[in-house]
């Protein structure tokens, strides 16, 4: 229920669609080699985003693809079904991303991008844009920060911070742990924290099975309600290609 609180926003032009096309052309035009195209498809029992369900706890079907050039420039599109408050008429989400990512050394990698959340089925404007940056160490530890002047479709500023770690058991099984805090005082006069633990089994390429446990603090329940925040469990089957 990311965006049900702000029905008075004026509509914005879909600039992310234009940016996506520009970035894709830049990636394809990379002089050193042809662009690389990758994708993924997921079936999940619950679409949980930053600790809160986006589907009222119902299953979701998700898919996306990414075009990347040798320079590090990339563009991607990702989509999922959603279910917010009935008055929003929200049934689908499309995420458009343009960015740059690069391996700086054997240990360090960086990624910066602009991410636009879009909800084409709604009768009110729920769309918003966020600037994100991630630093990764040894492919297993990361720090991410996201900033938006229109967080969650509001007229207020939000800053999302996340630290995470990946713990491989073998070449097929790994654990992942994430701790995050979402600064939303400018939007709700409250901020909230959440944690996530994943167990991932890459049982047969290109498939992975992921089991996830999510937990939020009481502030998240105050903001979004008990039916959207709190403790949640999720199982997902993903294929990457």
- The backbone outline, from C-alpha atoms, is globular
CATH topology group: Porin
Q: Please give the order of strands in the largest beta sheet.
A: 1-4-5-6-7-8-9-10-11-12-13-14
CATH architecture: Beta Barrel
Brief account:
The protein is mostly beta strands and 241 residues long. The protein has 3 helices and 14 strands. A hairpin with a 2-residue loop joins β12 and β13.
Structural descriptors:
241 residues; Porin; twelve-stranded antiparallel barrel; two-stranded antiparallel ribbon; 3 helices; globular
Structure explained in plain terms:
The chain is mainly beta and 241 residues long. The protein has a single domain (15-240), classed as Beta Barrel (Porin). It is built from three helices and 14 strands. It has helices at 15-28, 185-188, 218-224, and strands at 36-44, 48-49, 52-53, 60-68, 73-81, 92-103, 108-118, 128-137, 141-148, 158-168, 173-183, 192-204, 207-216, 232-240. It has a twelve-stranded antiparallel β-barrel with strand order 1-4-5-6-7-8-9-10-11-12-13-14. Strands 2-3 form a two-stranded antiparallel ribbon. A hairpin with a 3-residue loop joins strand 8 and strand 9. The two termini are 30 Å apart. Residues 1-14 have low confidence and may be disordered.
